[in-house]
Structure formats: C-alpha cells, structure tokens
C-alpha cells in the first residue's frame, strides 16, 4: 500500500501533515534498492557480505534480548535497502486510501491504481458511495476481481460512514474495524498512512517474512502483529511494514527467494531456502 492516492483515507485534523493536496503515488517506478552496486547491472547492489548467515547459528538458542536486537538490526538494514519504501496504493485522502485498500484484496496494487482514478472521480465522498448504483459501481470495480463483494463493501462503508461518523473516516482502530469489509490489516494501513498512527500491516508478505526471519512461528495475523509489535519500536511499525512488504515483493518471494542477493541474509535463519548463488539470485530480484 501506499501514501498517495489509494489505500485508506479520512479527512480530519489528525490527517494534516500526513496527506498532501497532491495525489500521492505509492507505487514509485524505480526501486531504490541501493547498497553496493554491480551485481546484475540493474542498480541492485546485492547482499550485505555475510560469511556466517544466521542459519549457521540457528542450532544455538536465541535469547529474547538477542531476538529483539536482531529484529531491530534487520529493520535498520531494510531501511538502508529501501529508503523510499512506501504504500504502493495511490490516494489523496483517508477515504481514498480506505477504499483502495479494500479493493486491493486478491489483486495487485498496480491493478487497483489503474482502477481508482475513475472511481474516485465518480465517487468523491462517503455519501456518493452510500448512494451508488450497484451495477455501475460493479462495472467500475470489475478489473479488480471479486467486484460484486467489493462493491457491496464499498457501498456499506459509505453508508456506515454517513450514518455513524458524519461521513468521515474515523482515526481509531476500534472504529475502523466496525466498517464492512475492514479488518485489522486494512485499518492499520489507514492509520499508518493516512493518520500517522503507527501500525503493523500483516499481509501475506509480512507474515511470510517474519516467519522466515524467525521472529515468530505464529500463523494468525493478530498474533503475528502482537509478537512483532513487541520486538520493534512502535515508531517503526508503519515503515517496517512497508519495508518487509517491499522485500517480499522484490527479493524474498514465496517461491524461490533470492537469498544470494538479500541484504538481510546475515540475520535470517532461513538463508538457503532460495537461490544462494549471488549472480543467479540477482537475476531473480525485481526492481519495480
Ligand atoms: S531472501 Fe532468503 S535470506 Fe533473505 S530474508 Fe528471504 S529467506 Fe531470508
């Protein structure tokens, strides 16, 4: 998701300073995958040199303190690797971010970003969604898949916002999750990117990475959120989410991760589950 036009939105005083009047585009085209240079010749710099990946030390029990330190070091390295990590949905308001995030289920952010300009122009506020013609809305949402269910959610969100929140997206987790089709993941996207409230976005990439990194073995997103929230500074939660999602989309793929081109390999006990040859791994890395 992204800080731009897209994902979740709201307009209140608390959003000032987070949102700008210009459409923000979460999906910037170039990946600042920027350390070292040379491997692959595509701007991707390759992994931090590591002679002893965490996997080699995995047989030794790790203390709680060591785990916290490793998680925070990993986050700092990801910050160097992805200095421009951001929400990859386009949005200009909390409402746009909320709607875009709901639409992003089971599809790509790029697909959502192709759909939302016309959608946001046609439905500028919660009241417009509340009174939308269902068939017309479904046609607009068709390219994102599951368009009937998504239209239902968006109309329901519009109605709930008008009826219970004066047409504004609320800035509290406990209120956001009462909206149709809005769970903790979507709520945290809105809070983190439209309201500046730190939140962990436990999507499929986030969950896969923190398990590979050995931060947790939990599968339940709520439990993952609780565990990771206890490892990394609260102020880092939103950016950590962006960084892990960036890394999951570009390097640590579900199938065949590019371990040999991974900048956080030295802190990863799963090093070796994917391609370890640096040259072959660099060719797997996605740069946009
Ligand atoms: S790419 Fe490999 S080394 Fe890097 S985080 Fe993923 S599993 Fe670990």
From TrEMBL:
Its EC number is 4.2.99.18. This is Endonuclease III. Belongs to the Nth/MutY family. The gene is nth. Keywords: 4Fe-4S, DNA damage, DNA repair, DNA-binding, Endonuclease, Glycosidase, Hydrolase, Iron, Iron-sulfur, Lyase, Metal-binding, Nuclease. One of its GO terms (biological process) is base-excision repair, AP site formation. Residues 1-61 are annotated as: Disordered. Residues 37-46 have a biased composition (Gly residues). It comes from Cellulosimicrobium protaetiae. It is an enzyme of class 4 (lyase). NCBIfam families: nth.
